[in-house]
Amino acid sequence: MIFKSWLSILVLMKWNYCTAIATFPKTVDLSYRDLQREDFFIKIQNQIDMREVNELILRGNKFDSFLDCSTKLDSLRILDLSYNNLKKFFFLCLEESNLVSLNVSHNQIEYINDEALNHRVMKLKILDVSFNDLYVVNDTMLQHMKNLEFLSLASNPIEENIDAYVFQNLTQLKHLDLRNVSSPYFSPSLFEPLSNLEHLDLSLNPIEDVPPLPSGIKVLYIYGTNILHLGSFVMPQLLVLSLDNSANLTSILLNNFENLTQLEILSMRDSPRLSQLRLRPMSSKLLPRLKRLSLQNCALETLNSELLPIIQKTAILDLQSNPWRCDCRMKWINAMNLTTDLVSSFRCQTPLKHRGKLLHEVPSQELECDEPPEGRRGFDAEAVGRIFYPILWVCLALLILGLLATGVVYYSRGCLDQWLMKMRHRGTDTVSYTNVVESTNDLIRILPVGEANDHADV
Ligand SMILES: *[C@@H]1O[C@H](CO)[C@@H](O)[C@H](O)[C@H]1NC(C)=O
Ligand SMILES: *[C@@H]1O[C@H](CO)[C@@H](O)[C@H](O)[C@H]1NC(C)=O
Ligand SMILES: *[C@@H]1O[C@H](CO)[C@@H](O)[C@H](O)[C@H]1NC(C)=O
Ligand SMILES: *[C@@H]1O[C@H](CO)[C@@H](O)[C@H](O)[C@H]1NC(C)=O
Ligand SMILES: *[C@@H]1O[C@H](CO)[C@@H](O)[C@H](O)[C@H]1NC(C)=O
Ligand SMILES: *[C@@H]1O[C@H](CO)[C@@H](O)[C@H](O)[C@H]1NC(C)=O
Ligand SMILES: *[C@@H]1O[C@H](CO)[C@@H](O)[C@H](O)[C@H]1NC(C)=O
Question: Where are the transmembrane segments (predicted)?
């Protein structure tokens, strides 16, 4: 009794508050009240006319399932059931629900029954199923969601159990979140139907390749993946690309981004193996709209002077916390007029004598490169070209000459006789060579058996 009256006072107070502040739309906020399903459907419904409620917030309660049949939700547009203990939800009674937004994130849903997202809730535009226990998403689960614009399946243990045609009817979808679904691979046909997609998050999945993506995407997050290398991207409307925390990425060829002509933010920070940033000279301007390039905390040791155009035009460059090698190859950076921020980004890690200094503080003549033999990785190709190959060729030439000389001696001394003999006995293919006669010098002569031609005539 006490509980009930307390609750009703609370609800009524809230109700009055709501009606006072926002007469329309009508919101009922019952979040974090420890409500069980029965408390709501039996008790609270008697105090509030659910038919007029537009927004119902049941966040942080103890609902274990939700079924629309026990209540009248004719005007309901927004339903927040996040942070409950839901295993299932159904919309079975209202023939045509007005529900536009459904949030069931942070529950215990393992699969979405075919009666959950059926034709009755076709008006849904926002659906958040993140942080559940979904282990499969099959082709029929979302087939009625033709008006959906926002979908989050993030942080579910789906793994590879996402069917290739799950999204085939979701042509209105603009925002898709598949972050942290433990998926090692996304089928190429998965994203194909999403012609209106603008925002896609595939982060924190152990993928090694970027799947083919719709070309209209504006924001793409693929951080925290196992991507090995980046091929070319063709997304002419892309504004933001985040590849942060790529554990296996070692090298970036910026030319692969040549068709991202609208890109404003490119971020690859915290990629522990990223040690090479390359740019091949190209005719047209690369990344004409780039405003921010983030590469802090990677494994960059040096920057090639070919990157000059990018460094010069990008307003915000985050390059700090890289193991910079302050040698002759970095002279060009010192010759530039850098902003104070950028100057403090280049703190030398090697060589030892410059460790801890800013590149800018090291006088240009002290930016030296090691001599080729003990040259480091970057150097090797050149060193090999300059020193190793000529030696190799000389050796090869000497070897060939030696062989030729030996051959000439051999033929002139022994084989000539043999060959003549053979010519005489042409037609016989059973000549056996058993007589070995030592010549005057160290060469050995091999002669055919005495009268091999008799033998052959038989
Ligand atoms: C759903 O609810 C969670 C937790 O209350 C919240 O973080 C999330 O932003 C909500 N989703 C949408 C789409 O509003
Ligand atoms: C999808 O999963 C639901 C629920 O597990 C099941 O009823 C339905 O038959 C499945 N559909 C397909 C095409 O596998
Ligand atoms: C989903 O799309 C497919 C192919 O376009 C179509 O055959 C199917 O009827 C659609 N499903 C629904 C429920 O509309
Ligand atoms: C990733 O998803 C799992 C559940 O599959 C969850 O426990 C974990 O907290 C999520 N991690 C992040 C960073 O969201
Ligand atoms: C990529 O990185 C992950 C995590 O660091 C590691 O387990 C995996 O073996 C790496 N894959 C390759 C091909 O290097
Ligand atoms: C960019 O687009 C042009 C023209 O469509 C194409 O020839 C080129 O290969 C593309 N570059 C990349 C890196 O995809
Ligand atoms: C750097 O700035 C100074 C003064 O602001 C200017 O005199 C000099 O020409 C600039 N150098 C370059 C390489 O732009």
Answer: 387-411
